[in-house]
User: Fold these one by one.
Assistant:
Number 1:
Amino acid sequence: MKTRDLKSLPPLLARLTLATAFLVSGSGKLRHPARDADYFESLGIPAAKAMVPLVAAIEVSCGSLLGTGLFTRAAAIPLMPIMAVAIATARRKEFHSFSELTAIPDFSFLILLSYLLAEGGGSFSADALMKRRQARVETLIQRAA
């Protein structure tokens, strides 16, 4: 296996891990909005009934984009504050130190989202496919000129 191929695995695995988590979470919120609105209210999240469908839509749509690797960097951005709020509200009693924080899956998701924001979706992504096609079109245009 080539080094280039190995470098493609971390973003692919990060995208698939996050896509799975956010698609499951978001679809659960869409199926049980009242239950999740009550939970959001218990956490002190304002406008909980309005937030549940908004968060669900972001999780499902951005999770789908991450899964395909389409607009990876842009898809990571709205998910990051969702994870930050989850850590600050739902998970706040689970950690009292940085080492305990690192054991929380939401923190790991936030780190993976930061990685994808910085590095993009990798070579096994729709972003990379579009970039390769754009380069081919530009080459053809230059040759024709």
Number 2:
Amino acid sequence: MYKNKHNESLVTLLKQSADKYSDKIALRDVKGTITYKEFFQHVETLASFFVDQGLQVGDRVGFVFPNSIDYVTVHYAVIRAGGVSVPIDNFITPRNLSFQLKDTEAKFFLFHSEHWDKISETDLPQLDFVATTKLPKDNSKSPFQQDVFILDEIFQQSKQSDLPEITSGNRAIFLYTTGTTGRQKGVMLTHRNLVVSAMNIMETCEVTDADCELTALPQTRLFGLAHVHGYLSLGASMMLVRNLILPQKVLPLIEEIGATSFPHVPTAFYTLMDTYPNLLKQYGNQLRYILMCSAPCKEERYKQLKTFLPDVRVFTSYGLTEAARSTIIELDKHPSKLTSVGQSTYGMTISILDGNKVQPANAEGEVVLQGDIVTSGYWKLPEENKRVFCDHGFRTGDLGKLDDEGFLYIVGRIKDIINVSGLKVNPMEIEEVLKGFPGIEDVAVAGFPDEKGSLNEKIVAFYTTEDEKEKDVKALRDFCYQNLEKFKVPVHFERIQEIPKTVSGKIQRVKLREAYSF
């Protein structure tokens, strides 16, 4: 049921679902619903319009939409026409929008009308085709010289053009990594990359056409988008909401639509348990399963979650944009592996390397991934591609280990390791300790050059507090001495307003090193 789809394109799988489930609701959003038959017709119509406007196989198409039916329709129409989908974050800045459109050499661009102000401030490349959901009331906001098409008007057309045959080897999408270092990189992924990634998750979670998912995950990230691909390939249903800012409005939708799944990052469930416990109990127990990703779920938090949702299956997975959903674990079945991110998914090989030497079980090293899910590389970055690929696969930059049963444990980032007089310090260990100090809300630890001393690097701990007041430095240092080896105790403690993080919740230590000096 799942593996027999691995060699198909997303386009073929969508058509199979449309043929089999034509009158079934495929997607929902705040505006309404659309059946498989209607959705496929919209995809075919928009794809035909693209081809009529000159889109060639392999051309990149940029688009900016919130989570919505329109977003998914544009994405599928691009790949149906043979183009490469370039989903752009809904909250992107004009500067980064300009970069991604120029970097991909996109000639086609579509966007939601809520972005007219942003578009007017963006240094846009020369475009051959532009479409939006609605024209601005003030025409002066439009920077375009050519006609701007309206999506709903395109959907009303009935003309169908000859569309190219799409295979699993076709490039399907470029996704730009948010990164912890700053330089945006376009990750190139084929239909096979995306289908195998999605089906591996669907198989482990035993998703069928009877399932219905409520998702608030950003669809410009593979965690969210893989679920769209999987559900639409299986004839299941999905509702997309913009975000989880108002849980009191989002969680009741579980009951309203009969949702069986609600995926999100671990911190989202921590917030629900801490701030909306009654809502979580009332609606969360109607789910069949939840899947978490982007970071391992803390052991004590998982146990707490099971007191709220005792009968809901809980999964967590690990992956990057470059190799999404490379591992998965059902935590309920592996109570002794709660800090693991799971075993490799179908077709994936995980190696732990020290330099170029493969490490034995339980030894730490760089996590290296190989298999059908792994990207072919970064767009127009040949030197970076040489750096990240080796004989064993893709170097993730993550520090981890495999136990005797092949369960993967992520222990940090190689670039984040701090060198204190030749002794290696993992900042995550210090962060976990400091989070146990009363009143500390969040922590980020980074290494800074020790230009006046002999430490190579000195450890600095940045923290936020619940009451926005500084903590006594001596008390913080004494607390660390009680819980850490002496060389791991930070030299400096700095309270800041907010810990800089990527969209997926990873600490951006490079921003701290750029903004501060000690």
